[in-house]
Amino acid sequence: MGYTSNPRQLGWASMVYVGETDDSALREAGPHFENFRNRFLKKPLEMLLPPGYSSRESMKAIALSKADITGAVDAKRAVDMGMFVCGSARTVRETLIRYAKEIGFGNLLVMLQFGTLPAELTRRNMQRFAEEVMPQVRRASQEMHGEAALPL
Fold this sequence. Notes:
This protein is about 55% helix and about 10% strand. The protein has a single domain, classed as TIM Barrel. The chain has helices at about 20-40, 45-50, 55-65, 75-80, 90-105, 120-145; strands at about 10-20, 85-90, 105-110. It is flat, with a radius of gyration of 17 Å. The chain is an alpha/beta fold. The protein has six helices and three strands.
């Protein structure tokens, strides 16, 4: 009931890392994700949600829904919670396609460099994503959304 958005109106952003295997991806990218998430993003709550920005009821709902992610989060847990897409090309493809189906987004913004990820790992990540993930995700988007699909 209510408004149904066009996939072109919805976007989703995520840090993404594509490794040879799920284990090697987590081993290579995990520490860099954790630096970003647990050190560089540390902000007081009032900086993220300024007073008066949301109603009291909304603030309660936000606090309850975010209760388990306000502290430090390791990379494996972040993957399990859907905060970080990390794994082999197959795992990353399947995850992104599943999220696109569940959420209905037509715009995907991937952050392929994050935290302290070094240049060489970033280049490999970008190449794997471009060659082994993006073509299939684009094709799946076109199958899901037809005319409404954007060339991701």
